Task: inverse folding
């Protein structure tokens, strides 16, 4: 039970020979690959477990730097409890076998995903039965979604717990850390680093675009609707949010101070009177009615940023709680809106 890792070392393992791990033995075998084995990169690993049961695994070794080879089979049947994992797996060239609240994903994230995924219920309370029925070999769940069912999930499959909202520090850095952890967990480390390089390049290009538009150093606050049509409210993204971090990395100043667990503070319209610089509204089409109810009020029209015509709206669906893909989309759209 569990992965067996093969590492380069001083002990030789001959091809076509059976080795048994005795009860209590560590699950790490040290070997020095012989030329024939290194050339074929194929090995049949037979493990005699406690009680005499023998498990046979046919493995293909991948040679890495430092002459290390890993025989741990990468997960292929992943269940995603949060939307960012669905998005991130797509960027890594994978598809989960199941995910929570796929209808919500299609509405709010609106990012590409494979068809035919199984819905495992809500993100808050996913169905343990549906997850188990999919026979996953990895479940990915954020820490704030795992407080009630982590023990149950671990009985089904190994669990990767992500930490998108750390108590301190940048949530953008936390997103990058979680993305790397996922890429490593599913055996897509190289692809993961490629995606992160794309993210870095996108931020650099967007920063240049902002500079060329003469906006470098200006203050920009990011907002999205947070109430209802009858009781509109505004979510202002705080200094620790990934969104505000992107603003700074584009050579701008983030326009809303403070820190919040999930990276935003919900305020009334009157709080926007303290804004200086620019206000960028980010919202999907389904928020159109809320935006209309806000922008038609006299209180909104009296705001200094409105009078100065320093309000921009980011078109399309721009998800502000996603991974590298969503972050790149936001950076591009923000730079484009400030270049008008």
Result:
């Amino acid at each position: 039970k569990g992965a067996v890792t093969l590492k380069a070392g001083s002990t030789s393992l001959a091809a076509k020979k059976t080795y048994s791990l005795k009860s209590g033995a560590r699950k790490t075998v040290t070997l020095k690959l012989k030329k024939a084995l290194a050339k074929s990169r194929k090995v049949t690993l037979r493990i005699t477990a406690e009680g005499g049961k023998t498990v046979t695994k046919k493995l293909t070794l991948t040679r890495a730097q430092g002459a290390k080879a890993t025989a741990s089979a990468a997960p292929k049947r992943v269940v995603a409890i949060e939307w960012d994992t669905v998005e991130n797996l797509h960027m890594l060239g994978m598809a989960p076998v199941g995910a929570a609240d796929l209808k919500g994903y299609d509405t709010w994230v609106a990012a590409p995903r494979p068809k035919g995924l199984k819905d495992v219920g809500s993100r808050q309370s996913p169905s343990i039965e549906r997850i188990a029925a999919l026979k996953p070999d990895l479940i990915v769940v954020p820490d704030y979604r795992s407080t009630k069912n982590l023990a149950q999930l671990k009985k089904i499959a190994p669990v990767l717990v992500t930490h998108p909202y750390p108590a301190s520090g940048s949530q953008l850095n936390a997103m990058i850390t979680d993305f790397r952890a996922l890429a490593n967990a599913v055996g897509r480390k190289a692809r993961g680093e490629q995606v992160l390089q794309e993210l870095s390049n996108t931020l650099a290009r967007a920063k240049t675009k902002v500079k060329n538009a003469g906006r470098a150093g200006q203050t920009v606050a990011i907002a999205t609707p947070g109430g209802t049509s009858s009781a509109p409210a505004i979510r202002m993204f705080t200094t620790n949010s990934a969104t505000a971090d992107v603003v700074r990395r584009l050579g701008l100043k983030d326009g809303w101070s403070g820190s919040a667990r999930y990276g935003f503070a919900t305020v009334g319209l009157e709080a926007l009177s303290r804004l200086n610089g620019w206000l960028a509204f980010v919202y999907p089409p389904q928020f159109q009615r809320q935006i209309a109810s806000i922008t038609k009020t006299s209180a909104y029209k009296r705001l200094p940023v409105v009078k100065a015509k320093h309000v921009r709206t980011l078109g399309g669906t721009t998800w502000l709680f996603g991974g590298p893909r969503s972050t790149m989309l936001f950076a591009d759209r923000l730079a484009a809106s400030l270049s008008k």
User: Anything to note?
Assistant: The first strand starts at residue 5 and ends at 12. Residues 78-162 form a domain with the Rossmann fold fold (CATH 3.40.50.1980).
